[in-house]
Design a protein that fits this description.
Radius of gyration: 18 Å
Strand order of the largest sheet: 8-7-6-5-4-3-10-9
Distance between the termini: 32 Å
Mean pLDDT: 93
Number of strands: 10
Oligomer: single chain
Shape: globular
Strand content: 15-25%
Amino acid sequence: MSLIMQCGRFELDLGRPLVMGILNVTPDSFSDGMGELSIERALERAHRMLEEGADMIDIGGESTRPGADPVSPQEELDRILPVVEALYDAAVPLSIDTFKPIVMRGALQAGADMINDIRALREPGAIEAVADSRCGLCVMHMQGEPRTMQLAPQYDDVVLDVKNFLAERAQVLVNAGIDPQRIVLDPGFGFGKTAGQNYSMLRRLDSMQVASYPWLLGFSRKSMLGHVVGREPRERVAASLAAALYGLEKGGHILRVHDVAETVDAVKIWQTIKDESFV
């Protein structure tokens, strides 16, 4: 499999690491000061990430952090569709962070280029919602569901269990007629794993490789970092960069991050170190 990923309107060259900026279009992320969602503030954030060098934008209308409460499909669509429409001409792929087939269909009709699914397209109707498009598909591993996933995650061997799950889900998609070049895999750091299990996965990421599928990695500001450095989420930039660069060294391709400018700079230095022609 080549390092070209089919992603909606785009063919992405994964020969270099790509930085995906996180845009959580939720009231707790972009309040208008009265607790209501401000689409204008969300769009300001998106354009700032693009100026900072984001290669992709990942738009989410429902929080998936541990303990998060669900929202209805219509509310999720009401949050994300104005953003997709406003950013359609931004010249980067627009990814939608959702597991709901209704939201997938609505987002793709509005012009989204990728579906980033924490449930690995296991919801009834999810595969059918994306099968006939050219959108990219991020297939993630999660044990349990967001409200309870961190209570007591258990594995026989987290690395082998996650690898086998992702291999099985990728094969299901291919069997449904989906081009393998549309698929990227995410081990799901922080989604139903203890801190130790997260670090075991990162340490052994290269041995988790499934065929030639690329990796999308999300470490940004997560509790696995806070567990070690003892800092609050917004103070975990340096820790996030350390994990991201190690993830690239172990074979990562796309980094999903909050801190775009810092990650872009770190990746540039990482690439320069590896470029032996640079003198």
